[in-house]
Request: fold
Amino acid sequence: IDADSSFRVIRPGMQLLAIPPQKVLSPKNTFNNQKNKDGVAGVQHPIDIDHLLEEKYSQIQQQRLQELKKQKRSTIAKKIKKFEQLLSKLPNKEKLELQSKEHSNIGNLILSNLYQIKPYDTQLKTYDFEGKEVTIPLPKNIKINRMSDYYFNLSKRAKAKAKNVHIEQENLSSKKTFYENIYYALEQANTPYELELLVPKRAKSLRKKEKLREGELFWIENYKVMVGRNAKENQKLLELAKANDVWMHIRGVPSSHVIIRTDKQNLPESVIEAAAKLCVDFSVKNAGDYEVDYTKRKFVKIQEGSNVFYNKYETILVTKEGIEIRV
Reply:
């Protein structure tokens, strides 16, 4: 290299120039045809690889959380829809009462016109008690002297349904509300652990495939946790619980009763905290701080139904976050 093309000419009595700083290029911008003021492609700045990796990992984790949340919400939404359909199919009380009255009248009309009915008749033409002509279908394969009983029995069934339809409605509504609370809790969950706690995967072991006829069954750190979805199930769980099992509910609020099967072991604090959170999540939708009382089942006395009196209890504070949810 001659003196004309060299950047640092070395000659006696001539000042040696400093080596220019190395230009560090970002891989992110090296291929986008951007140039700096010196005409060099890329942007001159150091790369924080650790920060980029952490940011990417956080994005992946958040994406997985949202996918899992969507999956769990879909499962619970199907259960909510199921109870909505069952509620919509419930018979109307007024219609049942009218039906009961009509069947009773038909039974009386048949009883009053037995002499007109011939073997193998399929219908009876007569006049009702208001003088109007009516045609009554006769039941098949039933003796003539038992035909009136057929309609009287239909009348009794309709009357019983009308009397108890509100009980079934309350039962289905409470279960629907229970799953709506789970749906809201899923939306508020911030970790996969919280999501799995609310809606566990199908258990592989036979022990964990156990089902509960009254209430919902969960497993927290291998401890069996039972949650009542309404007053009837709360009462049933109280009857099923053993003396040393832990019972809990929200103080001053109508709530699910939670039973933790202890098998006479001391419960870890983490299990109590997780069960208390379940109790709150399954019982209320509103955000706030809730006091959850818990004690051994032997210190709980049933007053009436699922109403109880209890002592020797401890209290844990559970905070429920607020968020707008649309099912």
In short: The radius of gyration is 37 Å. Confidence is low (pLDDT under 50) at residues 204-208, 323-327.
